[in-house]
Write a structure and sequence with these properties.
single chain, alpha/beta, 7-stranded mixed beta sheet, binds pyridoxal-5'-phosphate, 15 helices, 374 residues, globular, 12 strands, 3-stranded antiparallel beta sheet
C-alpha cells in the first residue's frame, strides 16, 4: 500500500521544481537506505559532522563544511557566526546583539521571498538588515556605501531565480566586503549544481539546501572558510539548538554526495535536454498550447518546458489551466512565475516517463472540453 493510500494523501505530480510545499525532491535508493540504517544506531554526532565536513570539502573544494537543519537556518546561523565569531559569550547572548556588529547588508533585489522573507532569517539571529541599492539594481557603489557603517557584520548575497533587478557583480561585491575585513556570505539554496562558481566568487560561506537538486533529506549545507564554518558549528550551543541537523539528515547528505560523485553529469544533462525536447514534441499536438524550451535564468544546467497558452484557442488562460491541473487527479503542479505573462513553466527533472504521459493526458483532458465549449 502506498503512503498516499495509507494516510489518505493526494497523489501529486510535481512539475513545480524543488518546491518545499510538495516535499522538494526524490532521494535515490542509496540515500534512502543509508538514512534508514542510521535511524536505529547511535553515533558521536561531532565525529559525524567532521566526516560531513571532509565530504563537503572534497565535493566542493571548500576548506570545510557543516550541516544545519535547512538552508533557512543556515542563513540565520551564518549571520550569527559573522556577529559572534568563536566567542562563547556572544554565542550565548544571541539574539541579544549588544556590543556586537549586527548589521547585514543585502542588495534590494536579493530580499527574496522563498515561502517566507529572507529578511526574517536575518532578524531571527538578532541582526538588522540594511538594504543596499534599489529594486531595479544595486551597484558596487551602493554596496560600498552600506558596508561603510561601523556596525556592519557581513554582506549577504542571494543566487536564485527569485532575485530581482539588474545582475550584480558577485566577485566585486565579495571583494568590497572583504576589503573591510567583513565576511561575504551567499544564499545559493537551489544552486548546489553551481556551488563551484559561487565559491569562486571568493565568498566566505555558501549556504545550500541538501534536499533540492542534491536530493538528500532536508538539510542545510554550509561550505567555505574553516574559521567561519567553525563559528557556524559553534552556534549549536546557542540559537542553533533549534536548527540542528539530525543524524539521519547528515547520513542522507553523505550518501547523496556519493550519488552525486558517481553521476555522469554530461550524460545527465543530455538526458534532461532530451526529456524536454520529447515532451515539447508531444505537446505539439494539443491545440491552444505552444511549447518551447526555457533555460534557467541563473544558469542551472538543465532546461524546463514553457507552455504559452492562447486563451482564444484553449478556452482558458494560463492561470485557469494551472488551477485545473492542480484540481485534477493526480494533482499536477507547475511553476507559477510566468502565469501573468500567459505561460506555464514545467520542470521535468524528477519525473518518470509514465508521469510525463499523465501530465499530457491531463492537459488534453482539461483543454479539449474547454475548447469545444468556446
Ligand atoms: C529554498 C530556498 C531557501 C530555503 O531553503 P530551505 O532548505 O528550505 O530552508 C532559501 N533561499 C532560497 C533562495 C531558496 O530557494
Amino acid at each position: 500500500m502506498s503512503l498516499h493510500d495509507r494516510y489518505g494523501l493526494t497523489r501529486v505530480i510535481n512539475a513545480a521544481g524543488t518546491f518545499t510545499p510538495l516535499g522538494v525532491s526524490r532521494s535515490a535508493r542509496h540515500t534512502a537506505d543509508t538514512v534508514a540504517a542510521s535511524l536505529s544506531e547511535f553515533f558521536v554526532i561531532d565525529e559525524l559532522q567532521d566526516r560531513a565536513s571532509e565530504a563537503l570539502a572534497r565535493a566542493t573544494g571548500a576548506e570545510a563544511g557543516t550541516i544545519t537543519h535547512c538552508a533557512a537556518s543556515a542563513i540565520t546561523l551564518a549571520v550569527a557566526a559573522s556577529m559572534t565569531g568563536a566567542s562563547p559569550e556572544r554565542i550565548a547572548a544571541l539574539p541579544d546583539t549588544s556590543g556586537m556588529p549586527d548589521r547585514v547588508v543585502i542588495p534590494a533585489g536579493h530580499t527574496v521571498n522563498y515561502g517566507h522573507p529572507i529578511l526574517q532569517d536575518i532578524r531571527l539571529a538578532g541582526a538588522t538588515a540594511v538594504i543596499a541599492g534599489a529594486e531595479t539594481g544595486c551597484d558596487i557603489a551602493d554596496i560600498e556605501k552600506a558596508l561603510a557603517d561601523k556596525r556592519t557584520a557581513c554582506l549577504l548575497l542571494v543566487s536564485s531565480r527569485l532575485t530581482r533587478g539588474a545582475p550584480l557583480d558577485f566577485v566585486a561585491a565579495v571583494a568590497a566586503a572583504q576589503r573591510r575585513g567583513l565576511p561575504a556570505i551567499i544564499d545559493g539554496a537551489a544552486q548546489d549544481l553551481r556551488v563551484g562558481e559561487l565559491l569562486a566568487t571568493g565568498a566566505d560561506l555558501v549556504m545550500l539546501s541538501g534536499q533540492k537538486y542534491l536530493a538528500s533529506p532536508t538539510a542545510g549545507l554550509v561550505v567555505g572558510r574553516a574559521a567561519m564554518v567553525a563559528a557556524v558549528r559553534a552556534q549549536d550551543k546557542g540559537i542553533g539548538r533549534g536548527m540542528k541537523a539530525t543524524k539521519e539528515a547528515i547520513f542522507g547528505v553523505l550518501a547523496a554526495l556519493e550519488e552525486r560523485d558517481r553521476l555522469d553529469l554530461p550524460a545527465w544533462r543530455r538526458a534532461q535536454a532530451d526529456k524536454v525536447t520529447r515532451f515539447i514534441e508531444r505537446v505539439g499536438r494539443l491545440s491552444g498550447l505552444r511549447a518551447t524550451v526555457a533555460s534557467d535564468p541563473t544558469g542551472l544546467p538543465f532546461p524546463r518546458v514553457r507552455l504559452a497558452v492562447d486563451p482564444a484557442q484553449a478556452g482558458m488562460d494560463a492561470a485557469a489551466l494551472a488551477q485545473a491541473l492542480r484540481a485534477g487527479t493526480p494533482s499536477v503542479w507547475v511553476m507559477p512565475q510566468e502565469l501573468d505573462r500567459g505561460n506555464l513553466i514545467l520542470e521535468l527533472v524528477p519525473l518518470s516517463e509514465p508521469e510525463l504521459t499523465e501530465i499530457l493526458g491531463r492537459l488534453a483532458a482539461v483543454l479539449a472540453p474547454a475548447a469545444a465549449a468556446r
